[in-house]
């Protein structure tokens, strides 16, 4: 690989996805199946109603399209790091002339970007063919890409920290399972949190999980508002907290590896 090494890492993650064509086709089939279920489920919920707590049927469907496309495109960073720790390759890969954390970040970014793009395109074509459309401002689209990138970094940091648990505990699947369920419930993946009462919504938005993808999807479908600007400040705060925490976990892991002979 030539040129910028981190850009090449993104390309590496992209190439990995292009190899597995059958897996890609199965993922699109699953995406279509999930969206058909959501379209029919929420059409029953909205039967006889145009809005629920300020949310139209079209807004909810596009919100769910974004959250599902994102969740299905997440790279298994925690498992990759755990595998390297358990099989001993961590000592080798962490000594290479680049940042270990950034290596996994950029490779996973290339991996996830391709899956996210294909998931979204397939889902968007489906819902538009069903006549479900949504008017979105250009400014909202720009803000969405920004907050989605921040959300992706938060998710990466959390997965990175879970992966480092493998140094003290062999099996991390339980931690991954709990984290993903927290994303589903408190992260707003299966339903928009803002569709709930204001007090419950504010409680959920005090937790970090919604800032992974629930908040970006809400920003895109509902547009900019004073409340969303406040939530953006909280998202940036959590971003800094988890970057510092992930760095601390990695530093501690590296020291323990050196102490044990690497």
From TrEMBL:
Residue ranges of the TM segments: 29-48, 102-129, 136-154, 174-196, 203-223, 229-250
Pfam families associated with the record: ABC2_membrane_6
Keywords: Membrane, Transmembrane, Transmembrane helix
UniProt name for this protein: ABC transporter permease
Source species: Brochothrix thermosphacta (Microbacterium thermosphactum)
């Amino acid at each position: 690989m030539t040129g910028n090494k981190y850009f090449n890492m993104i390309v590496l993650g992209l190439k990995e996805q292009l190899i597995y064509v059958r897996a890609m086709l199965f993922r699109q089939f699953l995406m279509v199946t999930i969206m058909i279920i959501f379209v029919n489920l929420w059409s029953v919920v909205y039967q006889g109603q145009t809005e629920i707590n300020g949310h139209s049927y079209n807004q909810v469907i596009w919100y769910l399209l974004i959250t599902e496309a994102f969740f299905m495109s997440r790279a298994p960073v925690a498992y990759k790091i755990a595998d390297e720790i358990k099989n001993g390759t961590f000592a080798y890969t962490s000594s290479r002339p680049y940042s270990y954390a950034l290596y996994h970040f950029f490779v996973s970014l290339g991996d996830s970007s391709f899956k996210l793009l294909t998931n979204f395109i397939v889902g968007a074509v489906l819902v538009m063919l069903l006549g479900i459309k949504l008017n979105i401002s250009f400014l909202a689209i720009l803000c969405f890409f920004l907050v989605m990138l921040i959300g992706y970094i938060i998710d990466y940091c959390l997965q990175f920290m879970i992966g480092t648990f493998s140094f003290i505990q062999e099996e991390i699947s339980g931690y991954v399972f709990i984290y993903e369920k927290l994303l589903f419930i408190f992260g707003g993946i299966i339903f928009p949190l803002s569709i709930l009462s204001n007090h419950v919504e504010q409680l959920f938005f005090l937790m970090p999980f919604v800032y992974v993808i629930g908040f970006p999807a809400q920003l895109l479908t509902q547009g900019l508002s004073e409340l969303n600007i406040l939530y953006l400040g909280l998202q940036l705060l959590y971003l800094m907290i988890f970057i510092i925490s992930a760095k601390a976990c990695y530093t501690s892991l590296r020291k323990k590896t050196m102490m044990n002979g690497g």
